[in-house]
Structure formats: C-alpha cells, structure tokens
Specification:
- Keywords: Methyltransferase, S-adenosyl-L-methionine, Transferase.
- GO terms for molecular function: O-methyltransferase activity; protein dimerization activity.
- Pfam families: Dimerisation, Methyltransf_2.
- 51% of the residues lie in helices and 16% in strands.
- With 348 residues, the protein is α/β, with parallel strands linked by helices.
- Strands 3, 4, 5, 6, 7, 8, 9 and 10 form an eight-stranded mixed sheet that branches. Strands 1-2 form a two-stranded antiparallel sheet.
- Helix 1 crosses helix 4, helix 6 packs across helix 11 and helix 11 runs parallel beside helix 12.
- The protein is globular.
Length: 348
C-alpha cells in the first residue's frame, strides 16, 4: 500500500474542519437563543452548571456539553467553581458595544434557514428566502415587526463598527437637511446629527420600520431635530433635502430596482443637493482566498434575494449604476472596513 503523504492526510482533515464549522456557528446561535451570555454576565462570576441550567430552563448535562464545546473557541472559561463569560463571549450580550447577539438570533431563524436552501437557489436562481417564506424579505418584515426589530438591531450593531470611519469621511456643512433613505432605526442618522448639531434629518422607511424607529427614538429622548416619514422609496421621497443618504441599501436590490430607487432620489432632489451612498465595495480582481468576506456576503445576498435581487458590487459597478441613473459621481472613498462612500450630484 502506498505511503500517504502529509498533504494527502491534511486535505481531508481540513475539509472536514470546514464542514463541521457549521456546528460552531450553531452552538453560538444556541448560546444566544438561551440568553446565556446575559445570564452569565449578570452573575458576574463563575457559576455552577446546575445554577445556569436552572436560570435558563435547560438540561444540566446537555448545557454542560454546549459550554464545554464553546470553551476551546474562547467564549467561556471553566474552573472548579463553574463557568464564566470571557471578553469574547461578552460581545454576545445584549448591551455590548457592537453586540453580535441580534445577528446570532437572525441567523438562528429566517436568515439561517435561507442559507440552508442555497442549493435550490444555485439551481434556479430564485430567492431561497422567498421560496421558504412566501414573500420577499422586506414584505415578510412588514408582517413580522418583531423580526424587523431584530434585523434593525443587527444592522445598528454592525454600524457601530463603521460609524467612526463613515463620519470621518463624510464632509457636511452645518444646517444640512439629511434624508436617510431606507434608514431603518435611524442609527446612523442620529450619529450624524450628533456631529453636525445645526443640521436636521428625515428618516424614511417602510411603515413598520418607521413605527419601530419612532418608538425607539422616543424612548431615547432624541426628538426635535428629525422627523420620521413612512413610505415606499420606489414611489416618492421627501423633496426638501440637501443630502440624500443611502447606507447599505443598494446591495439589497438588483440593478433595475437600484435604478428605480436612484430615479426616485433624483426626482426628489433639488439641484444643489448631494447623493451619498455607503456600501460594501468589493474589488474586481479581489482574491476570494485572500479575503473571502465580500464573496461570502454576496452569497448571503443571493440566498435572501435571488439572482435578480441584491448583491455586492465593485466600485465600477456602483459608478455605472449611479451614473446610468442620472448622476455624476464626483468622488469615491474606500474605507479600511471594506466599505466605500460614493458622492454624487444630479445631472442638470
């Protein structure tokens, strides 16, 4: 029998590690579904498995096996006194900076289910999400506001990682009127208004999203310098803005829908106004092996929206899309996070 080389053995081992990595993700999702990060943070010290099981209404032995599985990945510590949360695990608590908890809850639900239908999407090009749930993602959220709230929270927590570089690279004048198109909870808009204190803002989104945003912002006491308008950005937008912001909106839509959104923006924009697009920008010649994030996010979009729907785009694709919709792209800034900011003006 031929002697197996180290490479011959290593490749099957490596591919199995990739296959079984789904269990890591599922374990983290379960960790969050059971609210274990918050329970362990509240206790604040090593806690016996019996007490944790009692507080989370779980099976003692099964819970122990879950926590032991998470230990090698740095989410929990185990001592003779019990289990405790690490700094990495604490990033899954509900009040952590840029908390990953809402993302875990989404992936544990509809988003993850859409991923699991990827083979059908690859065969047909159809949205796995729509096939399984009978409606598009945003139509579904209009019928399930509690899931929309988690989605917006997930978006906000991701934005917390990006907001400093976005604010540093957008140059606005005091007194601007910012129209946040499809702005969800208004998280980025509020940070912009905190920086440009003489400016005002309008948050524009679908009715359910607008209502959730209103309730949330009222609780935070952030009123007086913004208004919330519910509507459909395929039909109309407020027409009194000086800056029209599209933050992580266009990647949710196919080219034709993006052109329709941009056309609505152009119809609503005064001549002196500016379009600001913030989105992930992938490189045309980017090696997926060197940086797989863009390619993986593109598969995420494919499973949610299908081949005719959302996707990640290159700088050239964004430029072409925006300029074909009646704008002049004046500047593009590429950011360390992988995002880009495109600044454009309506053609006269």
């Amino acid at each position: 029998m031929a002697r197996q080389s180290e490479t011959t053995v290593a490749m099957p081992q490596q591919i199995r590690q990739l296959l079984y990595s789904q269990l890591i993700s599922q374990s983290i999702q379960t960790f969050c579904e059971l609210r274990l990060p918050d329970v362990m943070q509240a206790v604040g010290k090593p806690t016996s498995i019996e007490r944790l099981a009692e507080q989370t209404h779980t099976h003692i032995s099964a819970l122990s096996r879950l926590l032991k599985a998470l230990k090698p990945f740095g989410l929990v510590n185990e001592t003779g006194e019990g289990f405790s949360l690490t700094a990495l695990g604490a990033s899954l608590t509900h009040d952590a900076f840029a908390s990953a908890q809402p993302s875990a809850l989404l992936i544990n639900g509809e988003m993850g289910q859409a991923w699991r239908g990827m083979a059908q999407t690859i065969r047909t090009g159809e949205s796995s999400f729509k096939t399984q749930y009978g409606s598009s993602l945003f139509e579904y959220f209009e019928q399930h506001p509690e899931r929309r709230a988690i989605f917006d929270r997930s978006q906000d927590m991701g934005l917390d990682l990006e907001i400093p570089e976005i604010l540093e690279n957008i140059d606005l004048h005091e007194g601007e009127h910012i129209i946040d198109v499809g702005g969800g909870s208004g998280h980025l808009l509020m940070h912009m208004l905190d920086k440009w204190k003489e400016s005002k803002g309008t948050l524009f989104d679908l009715p359910v999203a607008a209502q959730i945003a209103l309730e949330q912002l009222q609780k935070l006491g952030k009123t007086g310098r913004f208004e919330i308008v519910a509507g459909d950005f395929f039909k109309s937008l407020p027409d009194n803005g000086s800056v029209y912001l599209l933050s992580h909106v266009l990647h949710d839509w196919g080219d034709e829908d993006c052109q329709a959104i941009l056309a609505t923006c152009k119809r609503s924009m005064p001549d002196h106004s500016q379009l600001v697009v913030v989105d992930l920008v992938i490189d045309q010649d980017e090696s997926a092996q060197a940086n797989p994030t863009g390619a993986m996010m593109d598969l995420y979009m494919l499973s949610l929206f299908g081949i005719a729907g959302g996707k990640e785009r290159t700088e050239l694709e964004f430029r072409t899309l925006i300029e074909s919709s009646g704008f002049i792209v004046e500047q593009v800034k590429r950011l360390p996070s992988g995002n880009g900011i495109l600044f454009a003006y309506p053609k006269k």
